[in-house]
From TrEMBL:
PAS domain span: 475-546
Pfam families: GAF, HWE_HK, PAS_3, PAS_4
Keyword annotations: ATP-binding, Chromophore, Flavoprotein, FMN, Kinase, Nucleotide-binding, Phosphoprotein, Photoreceptor protein, Receptor, Repeat, Sensory transduction, Transferase, Virulence
Catalysis: reaction(s): ATP + protein L-histidine = ADP + protein N-phospho-L-histidine
Keyword Flavoprotein annotated: yes
Key word Nucleotide-binding present: yes
Organism of this sequence: Microvirga arabica
UniProt feature coiled coil, ranges: none
Protein name per the record: Blue-light-activated histidine kinase
Amino acid sequence: MDDFKPDLLVAPVMQHRLAPLPDFLAKGGTMGERVRQYDWSSTPVGPIETWPHSLRTAVSMMLHSKFPTFMVWGPELTAFYNDAYRPMLGTKPEALGRTFREIWSEAWDVMGPIAERALAGEASYFEDLPITLQRKGFPEQTWWTFSYSPVHDEAGDVAGVLCIVHETTSKALSEQRLEFLVRLSDRLRGLNEPIEVITAAQEMLGAHLATSRVGYGEVEETARYFTTERNWTDRTVAHHTGTHDLAAFGPEIHGALKRGETLAVHDVSVDPRTNSPEHLAAFAYLETSAVVTVSLIKQGRMVAALYVHNRTPRLWNENEVKLIEDVAERTWDAVERARAETALRGSQDRLQLAIDAGRMAVWEHETATDRITASPELNRMLGYAADAELDIAEVRTRYYPGDRERLSATAMGALKKGERFFEVEYRFYRVDGALRWFLMRAEMLLGPDGFPTRTIGVLLDITDRKEAEETLIEREAELMAALEAGSLAIFDFDHIKGRMNPSPRLSELYGYPPDHVLTIADIRARYHPDDVSKIIDKRDREQEDTSFRNFEWTLRLMMPDGAIRWVNGRGEYVRDEEDRIIRSRGVVMDITERKRWEEHQQLLINELNHRVKNTLATVQSIASQTLRNAGTVEGARSAMEARLLALSRAHDVLTRENWEGAGLLEIVREAMAPYRHERERRIHMDGPDVRLSPRMALAIAMALQELATNAVKYGALSNERGEVRIAWSISDGSDKRLHLTWSETNGPAVEVPKRRSFGIRLIERSLAQDLHGKATIDFALTGIICTVDAPIA
């Protein structure tokens, strides 16, 4: 026992207890650091150093998960989440440390009971659950697949809830769109008349979108007049059929439609393309506040359009616009199919009528005598009198050059193969000179030597069919020309052989020479690096879904010179009986310019919003200050009108200049115009013309209005002798500054006011602040003098 050294046993234990605990927030991403920096002492969970091991473990697992994960802790359901979950919040405020109910208050009736069950120890799982959220400033229908799992503390009680979530909104909307398109195709497939197709498509789309009116019609060759025979309404608006002038909606909208661009307007009263008085009148006549119009371009011109009207403003989402575009294309295809089938039925009816009327000619030829016996129908078909006796030698002179030799060669070819039947098409000049196509079907009766002794057969006039075939060939050539002119490329990919059959235009579209043998590897080499995983994921999902037929994608391509090119592809998958893809085919179009236009349009909308907000803020300030300082209602009204008119005149100047600035000389002239008289020279203006920014121009205009109003009431313009001089100059040097002086003379004696009016404060404070300079008013005995000194941006 003398060798027993207890300190040697205790030391390792003590060292273990004193060793620092692992940092459970380490490598937890952005949210890990935000959790570390957050003041948890202000929340029910308390400071981090007091957290139980179970909470630390749960938070660490959540932060290190690559799946979007959300966790709440304690009875108050205090929120934690990881980096992958952050995008789910949209534009909502910071949610860390807040209560679950506060964060998702709009959906608490759905999420609350699920969370309560988890706190009671019951795990749950939901797939594609629809939930209405307001995370982008407006109610939004979304879909989610998620699980709620209870999290236990050291005592074994449920202390929190762990939610692993995946948003499936895009998938759900796509499935809904595809399901609708399948139902639409099924319904249209059974219709034979074009008007039936149009009526069914309009009705299904209108009911599906719960909108006010849907119409489809065709556009004449000038692409200006649009005619619709029938439209669908929900009975809250009137039907509007007949012919309409597309130019009535303005050159911008009309031009976009002629280019095949989809028009989507959420509110015609605020959209700059539609909010002019004449355009609003056109939409008011249609009882429409929101519209989507899809223009169909075929062979290089606008041929038809599908429109969707809503009586009240409506925020069209991307999926709805895409659905309307798909329905437009399918309606066009179905209408053209119905027309073709109608034409075919008509052709078949005519053929049957011809047969019934004896248009099928029967004939017999004796080889030994070289004599032909013909039915009256053959004579009529060849242009002879019905009872005429045919001269075989004369008949043979009417064959189109080379066709008689081809007919004989066909018959001899059949004999060599041991066959007695043959069929041949040839051309023949009738007696009246008309060139006709005939189809001969014949049987040769052979003698002992194996040569024909007699031939019998029938003759059909197939001129109409041949002309249709030639027309079809011409149309196909026109189609190819239209595809080339419209920068469209065609592809056909054999999934079994892995072989691409593209048009030359497709190679050029992907940045290769027209004669390049394009492969899938070549195409994938052009994918933008940031989009590769998304493209592959979308492709895999579509190919695995056996019900998926029609596809569309929009890609960014990285060209060899570093330029970005946007392309849009549409097509279909062809599957075998085992639901495997054996072929995909479609068209690809360069939409780079459209993308640039969309970005430019969004920039203009943002700029317009900015300017409207600034104007409203100015009006609000004027109203607030005027009403607060007015002695009477009439005085307030007069002051308000004068100031708003001054603001309006300044806006007129800026509008003429596209809000890029205004000339100071024009600003001064417009401001003083109401106080000048052509027979008096009491207002003098002197100074160089200089460009001012919109903010500076508005500030100067408002100041001049206040000074002029004061001069009319109390100053130099209140008598017959007083004069006002407005003079300004620009200092030289790198720091250009505006020096402007307003001076009054020969007016009534000036008294210093006992109270600083709003006008004075507007000039001395607000004006100086807006100009980032100085503005002072001197109440000199001989007249008011106002000086402004400000930098010119």
